[in-house]
Amino acid sequence: MSRKTLAVAAVLAFVLAVTGCAAKKHVQTIEEQKVQLDDAAVRISELEKGNAVLTKDLAETKTALEGSQAKTKELSSSVASLKEQL
Q: What pTM did the predictor assign?
């Protein structure tokens, strides 16, 4: 082989090696991003479950508050009635 052919072969081998390394690094980056996305999906799921529990608790608290407000109104009426009787 001539020197020119050897030089071209060497450059071609170098370019292929660099391209292979870049592709390998790209695949590794994609795999790392997939792991991050999976972790984020798990965290989102945990947060959604927590949100559901909090929403349920909030609804129960609102119901209890409404009941307490109704009872307070009823007691206020009773107190006003007793004051009138006195």
A: 0.56
